[in-house]
Write the structure tokens for this entry.
Amino acid sequence: MNETIACAICSEACCTLDIDGESQERLVRMFKALGSPVRFEIMKFLVTHPGCITGDIVEYLPVAQATVSQHLKVLREAGWVAGTTDGPARCYCPDSENIAWFREIVGEIL
């Protein structure tokens, strides 16, 4: 028997989260990517320094270039950042389209 137990601090449902399949996987990937303190710091840096290269991030964070590159790869694959190659350098910025999608979905929850 599945009975709902009333909780003194909980009220009725505030919202719904009608998401599944590919969209749910996308949302989970984005949340997971921000779960790393280093990746979160990279995002904080990119928000205020769009168009920077990997070396700029390495100078900002106390981690090796290989580590920054790996974290940028995770952020790219999750949809948080976009990168363009300019010769030997790769320029990064927040992916505004994916971030707008994330904000819209999260806004439905809150």
